[in-house]
Amino acid sequence: MIPGLNLGRRQFSDLSEQEVLALAISSEEDDARIYRSYAERLRKEFPDSAKIFEGMAAEEDGHRKRLIKMHQARFGDTIPLVRREHVAGFYARRPVWLIENLGLDRIRDEAAAMEREAHQFYVKAAQSTRDADTRRLLGDLAAAEAGHEKTAEKLEQKHLTEDVRESEDRAAHRQFILIWVQPGLAGLMDGSVSTLAPIFATAFATHDTWTTFIVGLAASVGAGISMGFTEAASDDGQISGRGSPVKRGVASGVMTTVGGLGHALPYLIPEFWTATTIATIIVFIELWVIAWIQNKYMETPFFRAAFQVVLGGALVFAAGILIGSA
Hints:
Layout: E1 10-11, H1 17-42, H2 47-75, E2 87-88, H3 96-99, H4 104-128, H5 132-159, H6 162-194, H7 196-206, H8 209-234, H9 245-262, H10 272-297, H11 302-325
Parallel strand pairs: 1-2
Helix pairs in contact: 1-2, 1-4, 1-5, 2-5, 4-5, 6-8, 6-9, 6-10, 6-11, 7-8, 7-11, 8-9, 10-11
């Protein structure tokens, strides 16, 4: 453990029963807010899943109210301020902004993990305490969290029929394709193919691996920046439904750079023919990977995708060698 990492935090074993109850109350309140954030995030595109999270938030509110009544009965109206971040080793929730912009399946998985973590924590805490009242209290909390999972399943059965789930999954898959795969694939194709001519022309014109690498690096980074800004500026996604222009720009820019660097990096090897042989093999692999992605995600027939990509790449590759050797 890093010294001072838990400075200012209490150990869970040092909390009084009132503080444990206060911690449970604040945790239920936080989780209800998270579920409502998920519901708001999904309401437009996945209304039925949004209803599930609204129902789960309502369940959290119900548990919080019962916990408050318990606190009032045992300790009075004043609830101590005890939150997750005040307790060493207590399970932590990821910031909502790290999750809410991800896909539907990722949000569902995160919600399931939230319930499991809370349940497992209370079970473990109940087993570790020697005080009978505290053990009973933690056991009740564990049962409540387990009940949340069952409630989520019931809500899912109510709101997510097989047809609805299939429709939402198709919509989520479509958004994934439009935001990440399509721009990323366009970038990968551009980076892999458009940089072939300058890299191999430089290589065969100079037989200098370092110069070739510098040209390849410049071409790859320059193309990545250009493609990224072009993608982001070409469509704000409001009318087309293609989603965040920033995400699409990042996907396109990064994959363009990666596509070019793939066959530029081998020229860090000082020996020319070794570097060129490895770069050529990488080019071959890149082109077939692009064809595979087109077939898997864009539903382009594999042989047609392979013919288009490999033939086009081969022509650019040959042009670069011929120009460099002239």
